[in-house]
Amino acid sequence: NAGVTQTPKFRVLKTGQSMTLLCAQDMNHEYMYWYRQDPGMGLRLIHYSVGEGTTAKGEVPDGYNVSRLKKQNFLLGLESAAPSQTSVYFCASSYVQFSGTDPNTQYFGPGTRLTVL
Amino acid sequence: AQSVTQLGSHVSVSEGALVLLRCNYSSSVPPYLFWYVQYPNQGLQLLLKYTSAATLVKGINGFEAEFKKSETSFHLTKPSAHMSDAAEYFCAVSEGTGGFKTIFGAGTRLFVKA
What we know:
The complex is a heterodimer. By secondary structure, chain A is mainly beta. Chain A contains no helices and 11 strands. Chain A binds chain B through residues 4, 31, 33, 40-45, 48, 50, 56, 58, 90, 92, 94, 96-98, 101, 103-111, and chain B through 9, 32, 34, 36, 41-46, 49, 51, 53, 90, 94, 97-102, 104-107.
């Protein structure tokens, strides 16, 4: 199993450019998430999805859009990149369990380092 | 509303010394608590988790954490630090089902001196 994979690993954009980050998981997880990580701020949730065809806003959704057309994929889009979106982006996924030994544990991808000039 | 506070953005220990990383949380319901570790240029991986089964939780690489409800704490410890423990550690709290209710702390970077 590859787990959670992210494409690309690095990207440099100019202000105003657009791009899409791809996340894929092969663990049949229902839930998927996009976070951004900035120094001293931990991880902040951008958007999440509880299943194929559904998405919802997290803590910092402005400037981003997402789509979950297939259960295993979760795409994060930046329509018009801004320098404030320079960050490391992590995708994660998790099972849905109402009880049991593994509630809410998230599995993370290796990250995408994005620089917006 | 839930929140997580990690005391100390940087902690430095000597190899072989005790590691203590502090985490306090607030939650309106019994929480699930996690410690994740992030090695340089990698994603986060689960170190250990508290799910109400036992207050002392043992994780990978010799780490353990104790849930203390009266102190709303979930501190991470390891008796003897190893150079390979140098990484950033994140405490997280989750309420209910669904990871979208998970809040991560700001992180503590652990340095291990030879």
